[in-house]
Amino acid sequence: MALRLRCVCAITAEYSAQALDSLRAPLETGEIVVARANAHIRYPARFQLVAAMNPCRCGMGGAGRGACGKAPRCQRDYQNRVSGPMFDRIDLTVETPPVTAADMALPPPAEGTAEARARVATARAMQEDRVREAGLDAAQGLNARASGGTLDRFATPDEAGRMLLMRAGEAGGLTARGWTRTLRLARTIADLDGSIGVLRRHIAEALIYRRTTIGAEADFDRRVAQRHEGFGLRESDDEQTPFLHA
């Protein structure tokens, strides 16, 4: 019987590199292989990884009040404790800035948990209907597991989306694995949007969620630039962080 679990890693960079990289194969194949001298045993282990980490060891990384005094080196060294191949297997990377007093005074969001749940259920039903009509296996036809011909059939973007994806790949922001995972994510975003096809805007949003190869130093420079813009300043064009997602 397949196991469907949720693995939650808090302060991810504090785990050893060996422990984190041991998750790479199960994330890719949905299996754990135990190898011994006389036998190899495979256990089903398909799970959802939810991980969190601070921008640097002190937790104050970034520009602004209370920023880390060792940035950007502190950020770069800390974030590099999670290997590139491991990051490449994470589909959604979301930066959550500190909550300010102004944020606390804002009204609640228009879409609550119940509304989000309804949208997700609708998107999931779209996937199941699409797979059923195509006569495919229900499990393998889901967006998260689609590959090969199934992925080409359901997640091929329009021409503008394909060009955007190609530019991201040429700029070094995507590996072959990242290309496939971006298409899977874009297909899910399109389902949440109620769209039959995958459009450029869905590819663009999927790319935004992927961690690029720019690095911690460029992230620090970007935040500094944003802070300067808040005071009416602007960095020169030569100092702008490369934008891979267009």
In spatial order, strands of the major sheet run: 1-4
Largest sheet composition: 2 strands, parallel
Mean of residue pLDDT values: 79
Regarding quaternary structure, what we see is single chain
Following the backbone from N to C, one meets helices and strands in this order, namely EHHEEEHHHHHHHHH
Helix content: 40-55%
Radius of gyration: 20 Å
Q: From the helix content, strand content and strand pairing, which structural class follows?
A: mainly alpha
Overall, the morphology is globular
What key attributes describe this structure?
single chain; 246 residues; mainly alpha; 2 domains; two-stranded parallel ribbon; two-stranded antiparallel ribbon; 11 helices; 4 strands; 45% helix; globular; disordered C terminus
Structure description:
The chain has 246 residues and is mainly α. It folds into two domains: 4-90, no CATH class; 113-209, no CATH class. The chain contains eleven helices and four strands. The strands form two sheets. Strands 1-4 form a two-stranded parallel ribbon. Strands 2-3 form a two-stranded antiparallel ribbon. It is globular and about 55 Å long. The termini are far apart.
